[in-house]
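Now for a typical sample entry:
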Amino acid sequence: MNIIKFRKFWLIFSLAMVVVSIPTIIFFRLPSGIDFTGGTLVEFKPKEQMDVSVLREKVKELEEKNVQIQQSGSNQFIVRVNIADNEKSKKFEEELKSKLPDIEIVRRENIGTIVSANTTRRGIYGFLLAAVLIIMYLAYSFREVPRSVSSWAFGTIAIVTLLHDLCSTVAIYSIIGRIFGYELDSNFLVASLTILGFSVHDTIVVFDRIRENIIKNPQRSFSQNANSSINQTLARSLNTSLTAILILIAMLILGGSTIKPFILMLAIGIGIGTYSSIFIAAPALVMWFEYKNKDNKRVKV
């Protein structure tokens, strides 16, 4: 496969994906869960078999607005409401029991606004810190590459690739999430950071092979070494990602509804991350190299 030959097409296509993803995320914006806004979560199990649609009708009769209910297991349900105050939370739980007397409370959580603000802030800090560390690590690890190839380019392109992965993943997840009534919670942050790690790992494998080839085969042009590296790692990348996605699909089918949003986002992210490590990372590195060395006639491009 000569992927590098059509590098401009792949990069333009990927850029278009990001351009489309940003308004898609805004238009299909998912509601923030109690992990970000603060609120109360009550998980319960009725003694008799009940349908979620019947429960929704009963919950609508409560005084509180914006009450959400979803099934979390076999005849087990979760109710979320935007109440952060402890006293109001207890009152809501009493009202819930009055409407549904034959239920067993399995779990209750009350997240204050301060805690939810910390969750949001730490999620942002976590992503920024990971990005800086990735750039520094790759710049150090690839310090032995020839001077015509900047070691900092590897880290910078890896982060650009990650931004593409997250934008595209969140856009697709937002569309599906709007259909199934998903919301943004702490699992969303965990899935995002997991996708970040998986995508970088896949990209580093390709980059490391490029480094090996340009040292072992200096007579070849940079684009030839990059294309050979992609083909040499292609089977490994596809097999690793496909194995992970198949496991996630099985969990998506057989798992409870509470983990399905998390699993779905992981599956989407891993798929897009595999695409980007093959069709974006190496082609972008070649474009960077060509731009930096366009006036140097002695360097093979």
Observations:
- The chain has two domains: 4-33+115-292, 39-110.
- The chain has nine helices and four strands.
- The longest helix spans residues 222-254.
